[in-house]
């Protein structure tokens, strides 16, 4: 059943991309120009001062991770809001599976397209800036955890969208929230504050991924365990809260409302 759902969603995504390719191209161009504006603007304000290769690599890695998270965060809620507006939301409830499971399948079905666009933006940025990131198999675990935690937050927004339907303002504000979660060097592990910062969504995995890509640092087993725990916990929380929000929407008769 989930295989058929995934196939249907992937087919729909492919058809949409073929019909509206300009949206994907413009998205890649806009995000590339946005980074270029920040990069060259900051160098101009700094009087043309040179930035170290490691610092530049960390900046590029942080920006790319932020791009990855914003799409996964905004996608589920925006799609539910759009489905409610077009009248498709009621039809989705006829699917022989939990609504939350359907949303998860939908998100993962569109993940390839999203990551391809992110990779395209990264390639163009690296070409213009000359930065080289350190790719390794060790970076896959924190990258996967970033994806899981981002989807978890997206499912939380989707749960909110199930009840109120209009989430455009929240999604716009969420881009800056995601930037703070990705870029803030909160640290972790040691002391009460460190343990609390390890609970912040995305941040432990994003910080670890940035260090691996920019300086190829050696990470401990504890770092990987914290990343996995953080990603899986927020993904599970998002799924449970979305499932709960669906039940609330049904009880209040809000499924078909907009």
Automatic annotation (TrEMBL):
Its main location: membrane. One of its GO terms (molecular function) is ABC-type transporter activity. The chain crosses the membrane at residues 20-44, 56-76, 141-164, 176-202, 222-242. Residues 10-179 form the ABC-2 type transporter transmembrane domain. GO terms for cellular component: membrane. It is a multi-pass membrane protein. It holds the Pfam family ABC2_membrane. The keyword Transmembrane helix applies. It comes from the Bacteria. Keywords: Membrane, Transmembrane, Transmembrane helix. It is found in: Membrane. This is ABC-2 type transporter transmembrane domain-containing protein. The lineage of its organism: Bacteria, Pseudomonadati, Pseudomonadota, Gammaproteobacteria, Lysobacterales.
């Amino acid at each position: 059943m989930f295989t058929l759902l995934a196939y249907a969603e992937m087919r729909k995504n492919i058809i949409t991309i073929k019909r509206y390719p300009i949206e994907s191209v413009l998205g890649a161009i806009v995000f590339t120009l946005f980074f270029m504006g920040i990069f060259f603007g900051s160098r101009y304000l700094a009087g043309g001062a040179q930035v170290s290769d490691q610092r530049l690599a960390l900046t590029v890695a942080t920006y790319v991770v932020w791009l990855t998270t914003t799409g996964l965060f905004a996608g589920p809620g925006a799609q539910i809001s759009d489905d409610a507006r077009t009248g498709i939301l009621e039809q989705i409830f006829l699917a022989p599976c939990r609504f939350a499971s359907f949303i998860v399948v939908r998100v993962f079905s569109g993940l390839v397209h999203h990551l391809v666009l992110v990779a395209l933006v990264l390639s163009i940025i690296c070409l213009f800036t000359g930065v080289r990131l350190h790719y390794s198999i060790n970076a896959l675990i924190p990258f996967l955890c970033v994806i899981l935690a981002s989807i978890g937050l997206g499912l939380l927004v989707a749960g909110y969208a199930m009840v109120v339907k209009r989430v455009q303002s929240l999604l716009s504000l969420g881009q800056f929230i995601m930037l703070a979660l990705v870029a803030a060097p909160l640290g972790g592990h040691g002391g009460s504050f460190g343990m609390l910062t390890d609970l912040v969504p995305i941040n432990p995995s994003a910080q670890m991924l940035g260090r691996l890509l920019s300086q190829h640092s050696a990470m401990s087993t504890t770092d990987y365990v914290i990343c996995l725990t953080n990603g899986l916990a927020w993904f599970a929380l998002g799924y449970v809260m979305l499932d709960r929000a669906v039940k609330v929407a049904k009880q209040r008769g809000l499924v078909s409302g907009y």
